[in-house]
Write a structure and sequence with these properties.
With 228 residues, this protein is mostly helical. It has helices at residues 12-26, 30-33, 44-48, 55-59, 65-80, 84-97, 102-114, 118-131, 136-148, 152-165, 170-182, 186-202, 206-222.
């Protein structure tokens, strides 16, 4: 079957894989836990380069740091073990004790999303944004929830908000491009992917470079009738 006859079908699986990889990268990984309060204003390169061992040191500068750090680490460990219910419980404990912790709400949203609790995840992300208005990661995450439901216009709106906050947010540029492709805006999709590719190359994020290059190839070949 030629890709041209069903241009969107070629991107169902790549989109799913990309979304999973991104939610892992911005979710409960130790590198992100190292910058809980400021993650949304850091560039992807900055938060990706944070070292796990800096977690305690950075968290100790915040109110209630020791207990908060412990709850976050426990949630992270449970998440990595696939114990999503346990991770959710830990994050809810954290939020109960630190209700104004935007990062805690964001992480809860990630865990809920992984459990396919879409509306609850959106609510958690919205609360993170309410507490910390320039939360690009949370806007991007809401966009991914909407995209998983094929609510493309809403997804695009959230990606745009993320990019208004951080124009160099490679994941948001990639997600925006995929949404553009799904809504038959090929040129905008290609333009956004090229920007994302350039950013990931500058950040030496080779895995992301390979992903974006693969998607670019598939979009470009989808309009080539000689490709089957």
């Amino acid at each position: 079957m030629k890709l041209k006859s069903k241009p969107k079908s070629a991107f169902i699986q790549p989109f799913s894989c990309m979304m999973l990889s991104i939610i892992t990268a911005i979710g409960l990984s130790p590198s992100v836990l190292a910058v809980p309060a400021k993650v949304s204003v850091d560039s992807p390169e900055q938060y990706a380069q944070r070292q796990p061992q800096k977690l305690a040191q950075l968290s100790d500068t915040e109110s209630g740091s020791s207990e908060r750090s412990q709850l976050l680490q426990q949630a992270n460990d449970l998440f990595n073990q696939g114990e999503l219910t346990g991770a959710e419980e830990n994050l809810r404990k954290l939020i109960k004790q630190f209700p104004k912790d935007a990062f805690g709400h964001f992480q809860l949203g990630n865990v809920l999303f992984r459990q396919k609790k879409s509306e609850e995840a959106i609510s958690a992300y919205r609360e993170a944004i309410r507490l910390q208005s320039k939360y690009a990661l949370a806007h991007n995450a809401i966009g991914m929830v909407y995209a998983s439901q094929s609510r493309w216009d809403e997804a695009i709106s959230e990606y745009k908000k993320a990019l208004e906050i951080n124009p160099n947010y490679g994941e948001a540029l990639t997600n925006f491009a995929l949404a553009m492709w799904q809504t038959n805006k090929r040129d905008e999709a290609l333009s956004s992917l090229e920007k994302a590719l350039d950013i990931f190359k500058k950040q030496n994020r080779n895995e992301k470079v390979n992903q974006v290059e693969r998607i670019l190839r598939e979009i470009k070949t989808a309009d080539d009738p000689s490709v089957s």
